Amino acid sequence: MERKATITRRTSETDIKISLHIDGQGPSRIFSGVPFFDHMLSAMARHGRFLLDCQCTGDTEVDDHHTVEDVGICLGKAIHKALGEKSGIMRFGEATVPMDDALAQLAVDLSGRAYFHYSGQKLSGRIGAYSEELTIEFLRALSTNAELNLHVIVHHGENRHHIHEAIFKALGIALRRAWAEDVTLEGEIPSTKGTVS
Fold first, then answer.
1. pTM for this structure?
2. Within 10 A of 94 (CB to CB), how many other CB atoms are there?
3. Is residue 161 situated within a structural domain?
4. In which element (H, E) is residue 42 found?
5. In this structure, what is the dihedral angle of CA atoms 174, 175, 177, 180, given to the nearest 10 degrees?
């Protein structure tokens, strides 16, 4: 069964369509209207080895907040839908990614329970027009709507671009490891409770 999903969401603030193919091949197509965010999503998909099509029209003339958060909501829902019962997957994934001066560590549990925690350098500045705190909003929305545990630690970093890129690359790798097939499970759900949904 192909692990893919398409989510659409239209509000007075954003109009979004996201298609996720976990095992897909080829380049992703990402246009959120927030160029730095597009760059981060592209890095995430590339290193996560999944195919992502994200098209968004948002009220960026007001602020980028609604666009970034709502993309997180839709991508989270797409992950949740594409994984279904989560049978036969590793469930847990972790990645530590250096990006020159920056080092980010990220851990994921596809548990069916939402929890998000960030620690490390405060993300409160700007990278060009991009507000750094939007990365936190994206990660929180993703965790909530994908129903996964997400822990992010930035150990150190000076260049703000490098810090965010390390986070997004680590997220892609950790997700790839978490939803990879565990042949020892033989299709069983990886939980002592018997379900992770």
1. 0.93
2. 15
3. yes
4. helix 35-48
5. 180
Q: For residue 25, tell me if it sits in a domain.
A: yes
DSSP string, 72-130: HHHHHHHHHHHHTT-TTB--EEEEEEEETTEEEEEEEE--SS-EEEEESS---SEETTE
Per-residue pLDDT tens listing for the chain (197 residues): 799 999 999 999 999 999 999 999 889 999 999 999 999 999 999 999 999 999 999 999 999 999 999 999 999 999 999 999 999 999 999 999 999 999 999 999 999 999 999 999 999 999 999 999 999 999 999 999 999 999 999 999 999 999 999 999 999 999 999 999 988 877 677 676 655 44
Calpha distance 132→120 (Å, rounded)? 13
Is 193 inside any structural domain?
A: no
Using CA atoms, how far apart are residues 18 and 132, in angstroms rounded to an integer?
Answer: 23
Give the chain's domain count. Answer: 1
At residue 93, what is the residue type?
A: G
